Amino acid sequence: MTLVVATVLIDMIGFGIVMPVLPDFIMQLTGDDVAGAARDAGWLAFAFAVTQFVAAPVMGSLSDRFGRRPVLVAAVAAFAVNYLLTAFAPTLAWLFVGRVIAGATGASFTTAYAYVTDISPTDRRTQNFGLLGMAMGVGFVVGPALGGFAAEWSPRAPFLLAGSIATINAIATWWLLAESLPVEKRRPFSLKRANPVAAIGRLARDPMLMRIAIAIFLVQVTFMIMNTIWPFYTVARFGWSGAMIGLSLTFSGLLSAFVRGGLIRSVIPRWGERRVVIGAIVAQIMAHLVMALGWVGWLMFAGIAIHSFAGLAYPALSGMASQRVGPGEQGELQGAIASLTGLSAIVGPVLASQIFAASTRTGGSIYLPSAPLFGAAILALCALVTVLAVRDDVRCIRQVSSHDKAAL
């Protein structure tokens, strides 16, 4: 558990390193102004999200066939290739190639969640999923700080640093991380099963699992709306500087690491996944309303504090879902969930930016920068209704996979 958390942590540090310098790097590479660089960055994010949506179930199914370790190493190595390719990129097209490579192996998260499922007792899966969430939060705190320091030398330096870290991570994962999926529990790879649409569609075989999947998608869309709109909203509403925005993101990352890594390990055994998810989504709704209605800047920090509890929703929902399939299907399940997350990364930013632009455009009939936050609150409410329709006996249900049936 320590090794796989460390792998994800180092992966996220590398991801965070490049965030502060990306606008300046794109402007230097293309000669565009800030607006042009923002458009380029948006298309880069779109390319990554679409590729990840298509490839995530493939990676999950490959891990069911060949084991988690080789797929996890490949995912980390792909990030190293992406960063190093970007560091030496002469044109913007190279950045797109790098993002497609990184998206194709989808990141280590899909396989890491399947790995944790393999090694965790059923009653501790969600808590251990929370540790992965903590690693992501800490990575978002440490990474940007390192990236800002490296950028003092050159806009390309953070990418070299991230690539070096990812390379070391891939080598360490290969040598130190043991395989978690026994050979007898593996199953043949099927390209048909690895289709992202089919992977999501197979969730419908279990109505309760499908409801959990819908809730995951809605929750993730609201997170994407929040992440996309936050800097624009705080500038339009309160005139925040870049430093103030960075401070708010650091505050959010620290609270997220505490909630996902520490708090979840105590609340899940006491309250169970379903109750925790309900409480987390209620916190998400409240946070969006506080931020949307807040009239002074400090209320945004209060909203961030409330919103940090929403971070319990995803690992708890993943834990609920993992208990409904057998060990030979965990990779496929996590691949399908990753496809849902990838789909939310496509839908959320577009939805947020279009609503924000329509509600703040010059000469428009209304000026309401908080409109995307109200929309996110409505989506979170829909997620809450969906979770309430999931029976409370989900922790006691476990489907037997076809592989297990054959073994029996």
Task: Give a summary of the structure in a few sentences.
This protein has helices at 2-17, 22-30, 34-66, 68-87, 92-104, 108-119, 125-150, 157-176, 196-201, 207-238, 242-271, 273-293, 298-307, 313-322, 330-360, 371-388, 402-407. The protein is 77% helix and 0% strand.
Helix/strand layout:
Elements: H1 2-17, H2 22-30, H3 34-66, H4 68-87, H5 92-104, H6 108-119, H7 125-150, H8 157-176, H9 196-201, H10 207-238, H11 242-271, H12 273-293, H13 298-307, H14 313-322, H15 330-360, H16 371-388, H17 402-407
Helix pairs in contact: 1-6, 1-7, 1-8, 2-3, 3-4, 3-5, 3-15, 4-5, 4-6, 4-8, 6-7, 6-15, 7-8, 7-11, 7-14, 10-14, 10-15, 10-16, 11-12, 11-13, 12-13, 12-14, 12-16
Averaging pLDDT over every residue, what do you get? Answer: 78
Termini separation (Å)? 29 Å
Structural class: mainly alpha
CATH topology of the largest domain: Growth Hormone, Chain: A
Q: How many whole angstroms does the radius of gyration measure? A: 21 Å
Can you describe what's shown?
The protein is mostly helical and 408 residues long. It has 2 domains: 1-175, MFS general substrate transporter like domains (Growth Hormone, Chain: A, Up-down Bundle); 204-408, Growth Hormone, Chain: A (Up-down Bundle), CATH 1.20.1250. The chain has 17 helices and no strands. It is globular, with a radius of gyration of 21 Å. The two termini are 29 Å apart.
